[in-house]
Amino acid sequence: MTASEPVIDALTYDDIPRCAMLEKVIYGDDSPWPASAFRAELNAPYNTYFAAREEPGGEIIGYAGISTLGQPEAYECEIHTISVDPRHQGKGIGKALLEAMLAVADEVDAPVYLEVRTDNDPAIALYSRHGFTTVGLRRGYYQPSGADAYTMLRAPSSGRPIEPEEGPA
């Protein structure tokens, strides 16, 4: 590992206050998650959360979470968040966090869904480089700003087809 590579490990309950503080900095205008939301996310058995640190055991400089839902042979994953301290953006931390989450999805051969602001060009480019394509638009998704979001999808690593959800009969 070089000095510029982040350490990626599990997000812990001790990291929650720092996450809540970073949420206010990063998402102040769009309903930042409070500490209670992070506790709920860490408590859910289907979620996996990662922390990025400059050194082992150090303060977090980024965090990310993914859920794995469904049944074997038909799992789906959804990225809930990927966030990097603005002072550390552009250093490959988001890429490292994304790759950790994609490894979770690849273990169960799941497609991965996420939402991203339509004006977040760096994130859209990162996701595109990792195989995501835009599959939808959610108008007014982010509140209270009303910013739109793209829904993006990365197919399962095996290339297996994604079964469309069956609607009501």
UniProtKB/TrEMBL annotation:
<dbReference type="InterPro" id="IPR050680">
    <property type="entry name" value="YpeA/RimI_acetyltransf"/>
</dbReference>
<dbReference type="InterPro" id="IPR016181">
    <property type="entry name" value="Acyl_CoA_acyltransferase"/>
</dbReference>
<keyword id="KW-0012">Acyltransferase</keyword>
<dbReference type="InterPro" id="IPR006464">
    <property type="entry name" value="AcTrfase_RimI/Ard1"/>
</dbReference>
<dbReference type="InterPro" id="IPR000182">
    <property type="entry name" value="GNAT_dom"/>
</dbReference>
<dbReference type="GO" id="GO:0016746">
    <property type="term" value="F:acyltransferase activity"/>
</dbReference>
<protein>
    <submittedName>
        <fullName>Ribosomal-protein-alanine N-acetyltransferase</fullName>
    </submittedName>
</protein>
<keyword id="KW-0808">Transferase</keyword>
<feature type="domain" description="N-acetyltransferase">
    <location>
        <begin position="6"/>
        <end position="157"/>
    </location>
</feature>
<comment type="similarity">
    <text>Belongs to the acetyltransferase family. RimI subfamily.</text>
</comment>
<dbReference type="Pfam" id="PF00583">
    <property type="entry name" value="Acetyltransf_1"/>
</dbReference>
<keyword id="KW-0963">Cytoplasm</keyword>
